[in-house]
Structure formats: C-alpha cells, structure tokens
Backbone:
C-alpha cells in the first residue's frame, strides 16, 4: 500500500512561486480554431478564398525533426471539397499559396494587406467569368 499524504502536508512549500512559462515571440494561434476554414478578405473587403490548409516551418529553413516551435509560412487554398467528401488529399500543385507576410489581421476573417487581383488564387473565378459567364447574353455587365 502506498503512503498517502495528509491534507495538512503539501509536497511543496506554500510560499513557493511557480516559474513563469516562456512565451514565444509573436502571435500564438490555434490553427484549427483561428485559421482553417476561415474566409480571407483583401484590403477592399472583397472575399478572396477560404483557408484550406497551412504551410508551416521554422523561419528561413525547412522543417527539421525536433524543432521546438513552427511558424505559418503560407495559407493554402484550392479545390478541396471533393477530397473532404471522398477522402484523400489534392496534389500540392492544385493548392494556391498566400504568403503569411500578406496577412494583416486574424479575427473572424483573415484579412490580407494586398488586393485580391494581385494574387493567383482568383484565376479560376476570372476564367469562369471570361469564358462561361461572359458568353451568356448580358453576362458582361452589371444588371443594376
């Protein structure tokens, strides 16, 4: 039988203070809670994409085994709906990168500090607009 501690005795002195945990520099985010499946908006509050995945690694080098902390280097977006339903993962070439340096704020949405037109993420929408919607009568102008 193991010896039990009495409630009056404690394993540490009552006046001992615990050391403060080391806090990393920068913003600490929970990827699932703060980033994944969030809408990204450009500087004009125009929706750009949805964050589907993250590219992570230590700053300035590739991800090494045994590294203490990792950093988000890019947000990845692309056609992942089918892979979420049927399983699997889209090829890396199908995902579009938004560099983390373009991110200005993380809140309910992820805000970018650049215009969405300058990013390659919207090329599918531009192609559909020019090749499909543009061929519909009246599809090239605002209905208002």
Residues:
């Amino acid at each position: 039988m193991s010896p039990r501690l009495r409630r009056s005795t404690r394993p540490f002195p009552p006046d001992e203070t615990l050391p403060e945990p080391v806090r990393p520099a920068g913003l600490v985010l929970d990827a699932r809670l703060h980033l994944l499946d969030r809408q990204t908006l450009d500087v004009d509050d125009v929706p750009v994409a949805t964050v589907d995945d993250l590219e992570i690694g230590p700053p300035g080098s590739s991800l090494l085994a045994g590294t203490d902390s990792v950093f988000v280097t890019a947000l990845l977006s692309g056609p992942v709906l089918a892979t979420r339903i049927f399983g699997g993962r889209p090829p890396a070439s199908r995902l579009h990168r938004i560099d983390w340096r373009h991110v200005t704020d993380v809140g309910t949405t992820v805000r970018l500090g650049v215009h969405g037109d300058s990013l390659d993420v919207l090329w599918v929408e531009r192609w559909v607009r020019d090749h499909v919607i543009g061929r519909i009568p009246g599809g090239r102008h605002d209905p208002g």
Q: What stands out?
A: Residues 123-131 form the longest helix (9 residues).
